[in-house]
Design brief:
Elements lengths: L7 E7 L10 E7 L2 E8 L2 E9 L2 E6 L3 E10 L5 E9 L3 E8 L8
Antiparallel strand pairs: 1-2, 1-8, 2-3, 3-4, 4-5, 5-6, 6-7, 7-8
C-alpha cells in the first residue's frame, strides 16, 4: 500500500451529479490505515473526509457520503484514484490523479 500522507490530487473526471472538477484540489494525510483529507476549488468551498484507507466518510457542509476507492499507478508514476461515493441522495463515480510521481513513495 502506498502511503498518501502529504499527497496532492486534482479532479480528473466524474459522473454528471458530482461536484468536483479539474479545479478541485485534494490533500490527504495518512497514518497507518487511517486516512483524512480536505478538498476545495471549483464548485466546492471546502470539504473533508476521514476513515480507513479503502472506505472513508466524506463530510461537506451540505452532504454526508461514503467514499470507496482503489488506486492505480500510472506509467509516469502518479497515482490515480477511482472513487465511488454513495449518499442518501445520490451516488456517483469520480477519478482524481496525483500531482507528483509516486515512483519513490514515502
Amino acid at each position: 500500500m502506498i502511503n498518501h500522507d502529504g499527497r496532492g490530487f486534482k479532479g480528473k473526471s466524474q459522473t454528471e451529479n458530482g461536484e468536483a472538477s479539474g479545479s478541485t484540489s485534494f490533500h490527504y494525510a495518512q497514518e497507518g490505515s487511517i486516512i483524512s483529507g480536505s478538498y476545495q476549488g471549483g464548485e466546492i468551498m471546502k470539504g473533508t473526509l476521514r476513515g480507513l484507507f479503502n472506505s472513508a466518510t466524506i463530510i461537506s457542509k451540505k452532504k454526508r457520503r461514503q467514499l470507496f476507492f482503489h488506486q492505480e499507478i500510472l506509467t509516469d508514476g502518479r497515482i490515480r484514484l477511482h472513487e465511488k461515493w454513495v449518499g442518501s441522495e445520490a451516488e456517483g463515480y469520480s477519478i482524481i490523479e496525483g500531482q507528483e510521481s509516486q515512483l519513490n513513495p514515502i
